[in-house]
Predict the structure of DUF7134 domain-containing protein.
Amino acid sequence: MAVIVAVAEAEIWLPPGGCLGGPFPFGLCNFGQSLDPRPVAVLWTTLAGIALLGRRAWPVQVLLFISALSIIVAMTWVASPGLGYFLPMLVAAYSVGRYHRGRQPWLTLLGAAVIVVATSAIHDLRVPGQSPNGTLATFYAILIGALPMGRALQTRDLRAELAAAETREARLARDEAARRAVEEERSRIARERARRRRARGEPDRRPVGGRPGGV
């Protein structure tokens, strides 16, 4: 999260054209293009970063919070292009797929996709002078694609956890079976020794606990 906050803060404070190494494809480098008042932009960045700290425990709530915060900022002032908006939304969308474990995960992903698209549309309409183009389609595809990507990684982890649990249960079952086999063998040996002593007319020696001795 520190990286996201650092990038967003750099976008706020660097002068226009301050992107080192020149512009990247698809408009990913928009340093210096924060159009909100700086205190508002700093507050937005800080609140989004703090909210993302809870993405593992409350992924859906974090996405809703960041979406609502983005809409409030865009409708109250203006929206700014660049990574300051994009990165928090990307991480929030990914977190829904990655960490949400509800009973209907794909329905949740569909609802999250609607929220992401609606929020992005409102945000983009509030960016002064911005018109729909291929760049926006690329951003939308990345944001929406983060949802199934996170879900795929969660499925992989769940399968790994299930395999580990099955391996652990199998190991415990083997250990229990071995322990029982040892106990049964000891009991068999004790019974055999007792039978032999009785056959020779020797008294059955038993300790205080009542079990045959000599084991």
Q: What stands out?
A: DSSP finds six helices and no strands in the chain.
